[in-house]
C-alpha cells in the first residue's frame, strides 16, 4: 500500500492510530522501501517506446506530405 493510499483511507481508521508517531514512521519506511526496490522501471521503458514511436510517426507523415507535393 502506498503512502497516498494510506492517507486517502485514513478516515476509515481510528484517529488515535494516526496520532501515534510510530504509525507515521512505519508508513514512511514502507514507502521508502517500495521506492528503493525499483519496481517502476517498466513505465519508463514504455514511455520511451511511445515517444520514439510518436517521433517516427511524425517523420513518416512529413515524408509522405513532401512526396505528395513533389508529384
Report on the structure:
With 71 residues, the protein is mainly alpha-helical. The protein folds into 2 domains: 1-38; 40-70. The protein contains 4 helices and no strands. The longest helix has 30 residues, at 41-70. 0% of the residues are buried.
Mass-distribution shape: rod-shaped
Distance from first to last alpha carbon: 60 Å
- Number of helical regions: 4
Total number of distinct structural domains: 2
**SSE order in H/E notation?**
HHHH
Q: Mean pLDDT, as a whole number?
A: 79
Radius of gyration: 24 Å
- SS class: mainly alpha
Total beta strands: 0
Q: Stretches where pLDDT falls below 50 for ≥5 residues? A: none
- Share of residues in helices: over 70%
Strand content: under 5%
Sheet bearing the most strands, described? none
In short:
With 71 residues, the chain is mainly alpha-helical. It has helices spanning 3-8, 15-19, 21-36, 41-70.
Note the topology.
Blueprint: H1 3-8, H2 15-19, H3 21-36, H4 41-70
Keywords: Membrane, Transmembrane, Transmembrane helix
Transmembrane segments: 44-65
Key words describing this protein structure:
mainly alpha; about 70 residues
Amino acid at each position: 500500500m502506498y503512502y497516498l493510499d494510506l492517507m486517502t483511507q485514513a478516515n476509515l481508521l481510528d484517529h488515535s492510530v494516526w496520532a501515534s508517531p510510530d504509525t507515521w514512521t512505519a508508513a514512511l519506511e514502507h514507502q521508502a522501501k517500495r521506492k528503493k526496490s525499483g519496481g517502476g522501471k517498466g513505465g519508463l521503458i514504455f514511455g520511451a517506446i511511445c515517444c520514439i514511436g510518436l517521433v517516427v510517426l511524425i517523420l513518416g507523415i512529413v515524408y509522405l506530405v513532401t512526396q505528395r507535393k513533389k508529384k
